[in-house]
Each structure stands twice: as C-alpha cells, then as structure tokens.
Amino acid sequence: MIRNVLVGLGLVMGLAATAPAQQEAFPSRPIKLVLPYQPGGPTDAIARAVAKHMSESLKTPVVVENKPGGQGVIAMQAVLAAKPDGYTIGWAPSNALTTNRLLMKNLPYKLEDVRMVTTLYRGGLVFAVPKSSPANSLKEFVELARKEGKPMIYGTAGPGGTSHLTIEYLAQLEHMKTQMVSYRGDGPMALDVLGGSLPGMVGTVATTGEHYKKGDLKILGFSGDKRMAAYPDIPTFKEAGYPQIESYFWAGAVVPAATPDHVVVALRAALHAAMRGAEVKAVLTPDLTPFLGGEQEYRDFVELEYRRWMALIRDRAITIG
Known about the structure:
Layout: H1 2-18, E1 31-35, H2 42-58, E2 62-66, H3 73-80, E3 88-93, H4 94-97, H5 99-103, E4 114-123, E5 126-130, H6 138-148, E6 152-156, H7 162-174, E7 178-182, H8 186-195, E8 201-203, H9 205-213, E9 217-222, E10 249-256, H10 261-276, H11 278-281, E11 288-290, H12 295-315
Parallel strand pairs: 1-2, 1-3, 6-7
Antiparallel strand pairs: 3-10, 4-10, 4-11, 5-8, 5-9
Helix pairs in contact: 2-10
C-alpha cells in the first residue's frame, strides 16, 4: 500500500515538473517607453500623454525615457537590447524601420529583431518660405530656383527622413538639383526662414502654424491627402501641381522580437485606448491623425514605405553618411 502511494506521488511530481510554468501576470512592475526625441517637443508631449493614459489603464507606472540621436538608432538599440518581456517599449519613427535600412550601411539591427505592436499616428508635412519670398506657390518656388540657375535650397530636420525625401521627390519630378540644409530640429530651421536666410523648409505645422497665422511666413503646400481642417487655405501638394506626392511622417510602437503574444496583445490594447483618449487628442497637432493597426498591418505598411522610397533613394543617389 505504502509503495503504491509513493509511486502515485512520484507520478504527480513528475507531471508537475514537466508542466509549463504559469503565465506571469502582465504588467506587474513599471514599463519604460523609449522615445528617440529630446524632451519638450510636440512628440514628447504626445508620448507623455500616452504614458499617462497607459499608466491608468494598466494600473502600473509607464515612464518616458528620452534617447535622441542617430536617426532613431540609439533608442532602437536600447529597446532591442532589453529583455523581451514588454517592460521596454520603443517609439519608432517612420525612418527607424524603413529608410534607415536603405541609407545606413551598418545599421545595428534587423527587421527580424523587432516585433511591431501597433502603428500610432501619421501626419503630413508643410513647405514654408519667408514672407518676403516672391514665391506664392510650390511651382513658383521651383521656377525661381530654375531662373536663377541654382539648386533648390531647403531645410529639413535631418537627412533621410520623410521631409528630406518628399522634397527630393518633388525635385526629381521637376528635374532639379537640390541643396539640403540639415538642422537639429524644426525650431532653429523655422527661425532662419522667419529671418529670411533660408529660402524654404519642410517641417511640421506644430512649428510653423502660428507663424503662418500671424503672416510671418508663407506655407505653400501640405503633403497629406486632404487639407487640414485647422488650415483650410493651405493646399495639398496634389492641388499645388504635384498629384504624385502624398507623404507622411508616422510612428509606431515596437518591442523585441521574442516578446510573448499575451504581452503584445495587452500593450496594443492599452496603446490603442490611449491614442483614442482625450489626453492624447488634446496634444495632437492639426497635421496628425491616429493611425492604428495590428501587427500585420504595421508590417505591411513598413514594407510599402520601404518600397516607395527605395527607387528615389537609388535614382537620386541619396546618402546620409
């Protein structure tokens, strides 16, 4: 009898040893949201509103950590080096998974290293010129440069991003050369446009909108598919004579590739709820709209963006090194 009991206990213990460990409740400790931008800008405000909403819905602190620089590479490296448990989320700008792969020879991560949680938002760009500029349309801006026999001179907040590539596409359509002036953010670039030392800039309405309303600069076009409700008199690039041009900067949330399914599902639900919440809507600028999708939609969109810019980068011999 005793022998039978011992055998039975051995079987139970053996089954317990081979059963999978119970799924850990998520989340059970603070979450870090890594942002590839400096504190204080429009994207930082959005990220902090998202983090606040997530903290409340997930009932655990969600803290924004700013890691700017390197075209988003520094932040991506920090995220992908973290344990794949969902407690480190990356805020991935559009170039992080698309044009960086085309422009950086030694990119320290691969697409296979990344699990795409959700897209977050997208926004169009504006092209602004000094109020003293003779150009009152995109076509006139191009013709001024052509008559002067000079390249199109314009500023962007950094090479290789959507702002840079959008104007390179316009220049390709017009068979024009360009001279890009790179700035560390839209703010300093807008100051040079306001002062008249920079002929044009590609940037966000978050930086240029109030100056436009005051008449301190002119905005000649918006790269989205339709006019902004807050700025109904600014034409789209399509309306301004470039039907081929529709472009966006956008962002998504990513985690390391091995992050478990149940964690990704929980994060996606919390991020979607945050992007639909009043706190985030209050800080979204007029050029931005929520752009929410699942993992496959995100992956498909990344591939679409990668392919759309690949030929332009090759044909214009664009580099960022």
